[in-house]
Amino acid sequence: MYPINDIDAQLLLATLIASKRRPAELVEIVAAADVLGCPVTSGNLWAESFRRFATHDLMVAVDGRYTLTPAALALGEKLPKKADTAERVFLVRERLSEYTPAEKTASIPMSVEQMEAAMAEHAANAKQGGKNLLMPKPKLTEEEEQRRRGPHRRFGGRGRG
Hints:
Radius of gyration: 21 Å
Number of helices: 7
Order of helices and strands: HHHEEHHHH
Number of domains: 1
Strand content: under 5%
Largest sheet: 2 strands, antiparallel
Strand order of the largest sheet: 1-2
Distance between the termini: 72 Å
Number of strands: 2
Shape: globular
């Protein structure tokens, strides 16, 4: 696949997160990119990346939702779990540069306006303060962790009967 941009790797990672159980809507992919720490800032570049992914048989559209093909899922497999986003983007970008599609497929009709609408919808959802299921959970303090675990009890000493 040529040329490879960081946005291509970010799109693959965001779509992996957003479409884990079912094909994802565009706004869900934008939210996943925001959670990764690589928010969508240019609708034009992201729309072009969508079209390029579809042309190279990495993404398909299913009833207005998007999901990765098995070839794209293979590119995202076995990434280090403790790696930060920059490392993951670098690794995925390397894998994308080595990828050659079996054949070119039809492109996904993605416009800049669609991307900008998804970006605006995500921004509106973020301002509402509602619960975003893609957001990482905050770390608990030691005090909260101790309360969650409860008091320590020993199960020895007294037998039944």
